[in-house]
């Protein structure tokens, strides 16, 4: 059974390194007539865990490769700690890198793989052995140093790749889908452990992933990319609760999207006509009366109204019919149809004391204005 990472207790901050700051200024990367990155500007703070999140082809990996130096920008600049590195070769940037396929040398042991970069840097043998031993201990592979990659599980190979990337104490670690090849349970365990590793070392982490759950769990901030640009950047909770547009709302987590027409404004609240009823939503925009818009609500923010008190306490409500009920372990997933024909999904926690809804049953659902976002 795969063992999750556990970091040894250490006195003081001996392992901590001040992370590098990274600034991207109007980065553009074109391949012939195709633009992969279309003007990305981003400031990454020292010691931050930042994730570039987006679908395949959105430009996130190309952006990471430009930071690493494996790709050159067509336009723009990359600065590390305030100094431009755009013209600097990768080996001079002092950056650690973890690839999706781990890229371990099959003919070298785990210890030799980890120590390879130290050997290339001319680190004396005794010092190299000490640093490799520390790195193996850090990723809980102290007794696996003499094993070859073929003798290690996928999770153990991933840890060797991480140890190799941090053994020379870089101030910046880049990771390209590092957990993508692992099974779901191990991947979830290692997401938490990578956060612990980040906290212990103090290195600036930049992660590329298309896995929204991974990004939400691991990141200090997330930059959501789409079509070569940053669609929104912010803390995970802010992106989840306040997506700036339909793409972000749909890509991070599940969302219900309902067409609506603006009827009025009440301060920061927009009153809309939606599914035949008045629905209030929050927004930073000032849409015109009569404008056609969409409102979005997360499935877990909807609830069934079982009493007059509950209905009265919620600003938004809608009559629906249950068209599908699916048990998904920790939750039930209901597909609902409104009287006007619109469809919504409601996620409700499963439990012995919670009444289940039957297909064909009529019900009323309610949700908070604060959880209703105009996009």
From TrEMBL:
EC code(s) of this entry: 7.6.2.11
Gene giving rise to this polypeptide: potA
Membrane-spanning intervals of the chain: none
Organism of derivation: Bradyrhizobium agreste
Keyword Nucleotidyltransferase: no
Alphabetical UniProt keywords: ATP-binding, Cell membrane, Membrane, Nucleotide-binding, Translocase, Transport
InterPro entries membership: AAA+_ATPase, ABC_SmlMolc_Importer, ABC_transporter-like_ATP-bd, ABC_transporter-like_CS, Mo/tungstate-bd_C_term_dom, P-loop_NTPase, PotA-like, PotA_ATP-bd
CDD domains: ABC_PotA_N
Gene Ontology MF annotations: ATP binding
Top enzyme category: translocase
Function, in words: Part of the ABC transporter complex PotABCD involved in spermidine/putrescine import. Responsible for energy coupling to the transport system.
Protein name, UniProt field: Spermidine/putrescine import ATP-binding protein PotA
Record-linked Pfam families: ABC_tran, TOBE_2
Stretches assigned to the ABC transporter domain: 22-252
Family, as annotated: Belongs to the ABC transporter superfamily. Spermidine/putrescine importer (TC 3.A.1.11.1) family.
Enzymatic reactions: ATP + H2O + polyamine-[polyamine-binding protein]Side 1 = ADP + phosphate + polyamineSide 2 + [polyamine-binding protein]Side 1
Subunit structure: The complex is composed of two ATP-binding proteins (PotA), two transmembrane proteins (PotB and PotC) and a solute-binding protein (PotD).
UniProt superkingdom: Bacteria
């Amino acid at each position: 059974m795969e063992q999750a990472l556990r970091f040894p207790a250490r006195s003081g901050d001996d392992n901590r390194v001040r992370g590098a700051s990274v600034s991207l200024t109007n980065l553009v990367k074109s391949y012939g007539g195709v633009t992969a990155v279309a003007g990305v500007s981003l400031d990454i703070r020292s010691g931050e865990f930042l994730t570039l999140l987006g679908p395949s082809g959105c430009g996130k990996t190309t952006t990471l490769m430009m930071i690493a130096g494996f790709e050159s920008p067509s336009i723009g600049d990359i600065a590390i700690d305030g100094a431009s590195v755009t013209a600097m070769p990768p080996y001079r940037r002092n950056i650690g890198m973890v690839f999706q396929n781990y890229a371990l040398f099959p003919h070298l042991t785990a210890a030799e793989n980890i120590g390879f970069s130290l050997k290339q840097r001319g680190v004396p043998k005794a010092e190299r052995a000490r640093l490799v031993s520390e790195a193996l201990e850090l990723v809980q592979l102290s007794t696996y140093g003499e094993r070859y990659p073929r003798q290690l599980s996928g999770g153990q190979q991933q840890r060797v790749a991480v140890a190799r990337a941090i053994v020379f104490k870089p101030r910046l670690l880049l990771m390209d889908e590092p957990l993508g090849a692992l099974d779901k349970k191990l991947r979830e365990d290692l997401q938490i452990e990578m956060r612990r590793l980040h906290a212990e070392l103090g290195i600036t982490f930049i992660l590329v992933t298309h896995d929204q759950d991974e990004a939400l769990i691991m990141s200090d901030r997330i930059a959501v990319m789409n079509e070569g640009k940053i669609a929104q950047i912010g803390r995970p909770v802010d992106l989840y609760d306040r997506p700036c547009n339909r793409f972000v709302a749909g890509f991070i987590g599940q969302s219900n999207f309902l067409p609506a027409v603006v009827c009025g404004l009440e301060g920061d609240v927009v009153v809309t006509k939606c599914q035949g009823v008045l629905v209030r939503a929050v927004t930073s925009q000032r849409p015109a009366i009569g404008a056609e818009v969409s409102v979005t609500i997360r499935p877990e923010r909807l609830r069934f109204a079982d009493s007059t008190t509950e209905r009265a306490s919620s600003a938004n409500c809608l009559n629906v019919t249950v068209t599908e009920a699916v048990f998904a372990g920790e939750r039930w997933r209901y597909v609902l149809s409104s009287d006007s024909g619109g469809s919504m999904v409601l996620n409700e926690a499963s439990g012995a004391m919670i009444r289940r809804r039957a297909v064909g049953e009529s019900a009323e659902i309610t949700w908070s204005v604060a959880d209703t976002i105009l996009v």
